[in-house]
Amino acid sequence: MPGSSAYAVPFLPGEQPEQERRFDIEAGYIPARAPEKGQTAPKDEAHLYFMLHRAMHPQQPRRKLVFWLNGGPGCSSFDGALMELGALRIQEDGRLALARPGYAWNEYADVVYVDQPVGTGFSYVANEAYATSLTQVADEFVYFLEQFMQVYPAYTNDTDVYLAGESFAGQYIPYMTDALLRHPTPPVRLSGLLIGNGDLNPAYQSGSQVETLVHAGIWPKHGPSHQHVQPYIDACRAAIAKDAVPRAEYHECNAIDSDIVELTRQKVSGVEHCINVYDMRYTDTVPQCGMNWPPEVGAMHAYLRREDVKAALHVNTHMHPEAWVECRPNVGSVLRHDSFKAPASGTLLPSILQRGVPVLLYAGDQDLVCPALGIQHLVDQMEWLGQRGMGRAKRAAWTVNHAPIGTWQTARNLTMATLMNASHMAPYDAPYAAHDMLLRFMDVRIPLPSPASPSVSSQVDGKDTRILVPMMPHDFAAPPKAASATSADLAGSLVAWVLIGMALALCLYMRRRLGRQRRETPTWSYEAVAQPEQERDVEMDAFTLGDEDDT
Description:
AB_hydrolase_fold; 25% helix; hydrolase; monoacylglycerol lipase activity; alpha/beta; 14 helices; 23 strands; globular; Pheromone-processing carboxypeptidase KEX1; Rossmann fold
């Protein structure tokens, strides 16, 4: 394999010359399978693609290294890199803009975005020899880590390593962690796991979509829609009850999702709409129901298909001649065959916690794919280290600049964070909160240069103050001091905020409709994308309850 210098990405098309990038990017391929006997190339030419964003402010004496995985299954981690937590954000005109201070996860940690399993994003494998099980996915990721550490040996010492991801990565990450913990000589020693709106265990998560709709006031409790979907919930629970260990996926449980979409269909000005399953505050056109969201995804598709972009990112166009797609249906469909047989990843969490690996489960509360309520149910029923659930641990108020952004609860190696008014892709709506969550979990404490005062700070339970942005550059407006939440981070309806020393009106525009290539998964995809806080058009209408008698 080449040395790390061969992976350098000095410039990306679309970067703005007037905005100096203060971190290094490296990208390329690492083998995912060992060579067969007598061969030198990896079996099936299997390679995973990665993009490393170096930290702007590396931590000492122990650096932080985060591996980020999007879900799907089969969805590219460029979703996270360009729209959720990366330092370069795609714009609708194809430009790359630097994220605002306090948004990017690589401010204090090195972040590696990995396209996996093989065949996802820019990763490739010969003859469509995709991974056929969650166990195989885990083993191939461990092999990737072994090879990665050979290219970057500095990470083998004095480095805290974290696995992070969202959605179907909730299945990947526990399986990967279990494989690492069972490995006789693991390439890394994990310091923690972060799973956002994760697909973990249908035994506790299935049916929580209906609870969420009722709790939000979109459906009345025991109303016609609630009654219509109840038989599907009953069938799901009956199927799960037949198994001693819940499986990762059930056809009966997927029917709940499909029925909810059908029940939310409404005609508006002659056009059929349905609920946006990734953010229930909005609607989308039928049959997309959330897959047209957000508007920047079209620009990302076009950007990652450009020849100059692929050349800059060291994409192997010989082995990967086809156009980049956000979610590759064949990868997902092959792997999901195993999901209907494999144990749910949530069943691995108790042993992971008992073996001393800290876990952070976080959730945006506006998600219908993997709702926050379902994750709360899972935690409430899970037993680890001699107790069930979070015990007497207090669910504390969590604020940024004294404005409520969610709740924070920690007990026995497990932390649960709920982000208010955030979607399936929580960093999309709550970039300050999501970054603060990461820093708290990694116990990164940002010093405050004297005599400056923080531009952005956070508290849990009215104390434990942490600095998120020490000083705001002059070309950025300071965030709100205190008010009710916004959809950009301190979420909710966008209202006027009282600023430090000045007033700034943030307005919510109507997003332009922007086409998006529809994902071809058999049920709801467990993946969607996110973007930074900024003034932007709102693509979808707000969801309002129609005539329940018509459902």
